[in-house]
Amino acid sequence: MSIVALIRCDSYDEAAVSAAVERGIRLLGGPEKFARKNEKILLKVNLLAGDAPEKCTTTHPSVFKAVARVLMATGATISCGDSPSFGSTAAVAKKAGIAQAAEQLGIELKDFSIGKEVVFSEGKQNKKFTIASPVLESDGIISLPKLKTHGFLKFTGAVKNQFGCIPGILKAEFHVKMTDPVSFARMLVDCNRLVHPRLYVMDGIVAMEGNGPRGGAPRKMNVLLFSEDPIALDATACRLINLDPGLVPTIVLGRESGQGTCDEKSIQLVGDDFASFKAELFIVDRMPIRPFRARGIARVVNNIFVPKPVIKKSKCVRCGLCVTICPVHPKAVDWYNNDRSRPPRHHYGRCIRCYCCQELCPEKAITLKKPLLRVLFSLRK
Q: Looking at domain 296-380, which of 3.30.70.20, 3.40.50.720, 3.30.310.80, 3.40.50.970 is its CATH number?
């Protein structure tokens, strides 16, 4: 039986968050269960991009500080870090408020840009990863994901947070090699099994709905979730936002790998009442995932059903980040005749539907457009 603790916290006030975190960890057995004196414990925060805390893109500094303080009391040496999709760990952490919080507590912010290749023979799909050196040098990992929607996988949470243990420049290679959500999710499950955090604390005090994981809207959920089981945690979070866990490939594949359970009967909920947090109208894509096939006639057929990224010209400030982070060559989104006075445009014949452009657009100018036939098909079901 997997335990998931749901703890109410109505704001990011530091005292309120500290009390909630202490209670949640205590319900799972106390901090000594997850950190011991003289151990090197790494807090794996979510630093997707350099946004202020109120934008809800990253783990909130108050949650980070609360977890850090609880674990520091055990006598463990605490550090923190992540590998952002764009920019350095230090720069992104400063914009997100994590660097300042770490400095206040005397916690070292680790650079995730350098890694080491690790063979993982137990991997179901991926037998080898390059993992950031601070992860490998730690005695244990505590994962601090953010409750958010995700264009490619519908939901990003406990399992996907460990993708940041791979140095930034190498993450793009996985998008090119694994163009469909199922194989990409299987890689994430393998990565999480390799890193194997001891505890997951999900920041859902203010979540992100809609065009996540960066361009969505803040949604107050007033909850922190705690578990040793990432699959149970993600499945519970999905049920809170009225999303069927069976539609999220990291949850389905994580259960199949033996990493955890998503069955309600096998999850013991402790803490505050589940029903008091449930958001029935949370904005998230509830259509089944349809893998995008990158070659031949299958690509033509899939273009009819698979959502495509679209740039809203009125919102685009022509920063060029979408062009920079596009992982395919030649670029699937690029400047028109190298004219930077106009918004970039997509070449859908090259696009692999990784949604990296939509994921990282700082202006929320890129959304996912569902093809009309897919919408009509879903309405008939």
A: 3.30.70.20
